[in-house]
Amino acid sequence: MITGHLGIAAAARSFSREPMGSILFVALLLAAIVPDAVDALYWVIDICSPYGLYSHTTYAVALEAAIIGGLAFLATRSRGVTLTFVLVVLLHSPADYFTGRKLFVPGGEMLGLRMYERPIVDWMLEVPLVIAGWWLLRRSGRSPRWAASVWAIVALVLLQATLDAFVIGRGRSLKPNGCPVVTSPVGA
Ligand SMILES: [Zn+2]
Hints:
The chain is mostly helical.
């Protein structure tokens, strides 16, 4: 999942009463894709983490959520903000369940509905999700002005359409990874 993660973060923000400036809101959007950022880090340092083993499985996500929550608490001293960050990180893998196919428990089965194999289906899932998140956030009046703008959602819908049209479903992994060629994890 790609822009759908941002929709989830926007929705989470809309339900939190805590004040959150632009920088914190951008940090929350980034928190929604932390497991993917961790995958990118593994690639940079050449570690093979097949099928999200060290980034998307239960223990990895719990650890990532704890670290991000800790940072959020240090930065804001707000329990509400911290909980919002933790929740957004924890929701990453359940969201990926729909689009990809990966490990959820180390040594467990590969799970996922693999919508990436049908980009139109992926688009029909992610676009309503990101629009719903944007709409909730806009309606809540808790959004930075740029994020509540129509341009923001138009850009995200176009981004998702471009990815679905030209990148997703082409049979290759979305993410570079440090694994031998035989294992080519389906990115998400
Ligand atoms: Zn992911």
